[in-house]
């Protein structure tokens, strides 16, 4: 394996010439975001199975030759847990690469585990235990030492070994195209956009609020989101969730009343107090019909609870038949959504629909039955009328 550390334009151009025409590349990024709103790209690693490269975006003013390569739709970009890596592309260069393959959902589809970490995947498939000593390193420091660089290389060297193996196993199981919808979702800009007006729903402690207090929280959280993005600072560095919740609960009208909130620091009061009071007043003027409200699901009825137990049993049976983890197929909320008939239920889309959703829905509609097989005393399917997509009566 040839290893190249790229820190000059000449080295970058040479690397891109070597990689041009490859069908796929394993990619990873090292970034920092502890003190910023957006992730700060510190290192970009690539591997085609023969060459492993660490590209230094801090040393390089521009990455144009590499971007031309990575935005080529004919090149498959292989990531593990791709979302954070792709968020960097969306923010820094304003567009997302297409033709993406993510080994984390692929691992779930191969029955290796749901939300499997990279180290565990490498150990399971390649029998190699990766060092963890640099998982919290400061990637913005320069120069990086040899151990840090070796750690970064490992992130793509083994990823490049995993991809062909996983692709072949998926093909052998007839599942190679099942993840396409998931992968396409990763390349949509809306996946990485956080509308300020929806930021309130992510504030910890919102369950303590009622009625108009949600409108106040919405205004305050949208203001914080906009401020954090504009100043490239973490939300919590501007104002803690606890402060937003306390202000929303009390809905103060005056600075003196606002200043009595214990969680509020004096410098925050002086700097933003007047702005917050204005936002609170705006919330007071909102019509009740416009108040936001968290989506509170009604508890399942006893009849629905029984259906949930039935679906759980069926889910375990399907998972066993398909060699998958039940958690990789669905969680309790997914099953409840199916029972409630929600149109956007996760089990009604993607490969989960193909593997489990169709059968679970047919079970709810009485088109399938679940029973103990008398000859073997094991749980199985029985009394199955044919479905429109199942002319033989077998799913």
* The CATH homology group name of the largest domain: Ribonuclease H-like superfamily/Ribonuclease H
> In CATH, what is the class of the largest domain?
Alpha Beta
Total number of strands: 8
Q: State the share of residues found in helices, binned by percent.
A: 40-55%
Number of helices: 16
**Average predicted confidence as pLDDT:** 91
Strand composition percent = 5-15%
Q: Structural class, please?
A: alpha/beta
Describe this structure in words.
- The structure is a single chain.
- By secondary structure, the chain is an alpha/beta fold.
- It folds into 3 domains: 2-192, 2-Layer Sandwich (Nucleotidyltransferase, domain 5); 196-290, DNA polymerase, domain 1, CATH 1.10.150; 302-382, Orthogonal Bundle (DNA polymerase, domain 1), CATH 1.10.150.80.
- It has 16 helices and 8 strands.
- It has a 6-stranded mixed β-sheet, sandwiched between helices.
- α8 (212-231) packs across α12 (266-285).
- The chain is flat and about 65 Å long.
